[in-house]
Amino acid sequence: MSDFQLASEVRKLLTIRRGVHKVKLEDLTIPFYIRTNVDPDRASFFRARYEKGDYVAPILVTEETLQVGDGRTRILGAQQAGKRDIDVIFCAEANRETLIAAALMCNAPMNASLPPTEGDILHTMDLMVREGVSQRNIKAYVVRATGLAPAHVRKLLRTIEKRDEVRRINLARDDVAKEVPMAEAAKTHGVPLKKLKDAIAGKKSKGKPATLLEGPKAAITTTATRANRSFGQNFGTATKHFEDKLISEDELESILRHEFSKVRALGALVNSHKDRFEKLTGKKIDIRKSKNLDK
Question: Does 114 map to a domain?
Answer without folding.
Answer: no
